[in-house]
Amino acid sequence: MENSRAPLQKKTTTFAVHQIPLECDIYDAHDYSTDSPVFLYFHPGGLVAGARIVVPPWLAQTCFRHKWPLISASYRLLPQARGEDLLQDATAAYEFARTLGGAERKVIVGGASAGNFLATLIAHHLTPKPLAVLSITGIPTFRHRFFNSSVLIPSEPVTEDDVAPFVSGPVTIGRDASHPLSVFDVHKLDASGAKNPLFVPGDRLPPEWAHDPERGLLYDFYLHENLFLDFVGSVDPGFDWAENKSDPEKLKNWPTTIFIQGDADDDVEADVCSSVASALGDKAMYFEAKGMPHLYERHMFLEDIENGTGPGEVAVKQAITALDGVIGGV
């Protein structure tokens, strides 16, 4: 059973055609201002899987509270796509967000896990810069040693035969929603934007989506074989420029970047984010959740975060407060 009065409306539209149509979901409401900031979000999945319908409820609620339209954009996946393709997709999504509704808009960019890589590409390569970057257990660079030293070695290493069907497949966007619980449904919120206690999630995914964890094996395979830079290195400047202060103008103009990371993450070493945050200095805020795994917050609502006192809830709460401070000061 669900409350029929959802606070958000969802619209799906094509924002670009790059070999294949690229769609995004827009979550907003009729009373939103046409000059408010827009939040552009990229989904997790190691650049090889995932789906744009996977959006944390707390992020949707945060955008609703501020009356920020939330755009969750698809992008082409590795290995059929390369770094230049990801930059092209991120650029198109950013330009779409900047002109949403026909007006010039300011944009906050963010992503979960590898989705943050696309958000960071925007900060690296595009102008005007986004208002802020929100990295949710994210991957800001594939030049970090974690992605080039076979750190993550599966107990049973993935083989070329395991991933062959995906390597030889067509150009695609992410369609793996992992689990029905991960899918954001506007009816998860009641008319006020609060967690809807009457909502009962279904056990089936919408027909156009799939539960296909096997494609995710590509992440383990490319990590084990140290191949990620081969795919994205051409557009990934890394963070040496910030660490060595070799490009002070770029550092000066870099948007404030807010990191949420669990220190028990078994997919992305915590040092991936903490190293980048340290290099960015006062341009970064880093909130670590002790004992928390990868994407631990994916099913949380604001009520869980605001009422919780554990390290996971506290880290997200701190990040939201930090984001409020950054955007409120613009």
TrEMBL record:
Keyword tags: Hydrolase
- In terms of domain of life, where is this protein from? Eukaryota
The family database entries (Pfam families) matched by this protein are listed as: Abhydrolase_3
Q: Which SUPFAM superfamilies match?
A: alpha/beta-Hydrolases (SSF53474)
Ranges for domain Alpha/beta hydrolase fold-3 come to: 40-129
Q: Does the keyword field hold Transport?
A: no
Q: Which molecular function term from Gene Ontology is one that the record holds? A: hydrolase activity
Decide whether keyword Hydrolase is in the record: yes
> What protein name applies here?
Alpha/beta-hydrolase
Look up and give the organism this protein is from.
Echria macrotheca
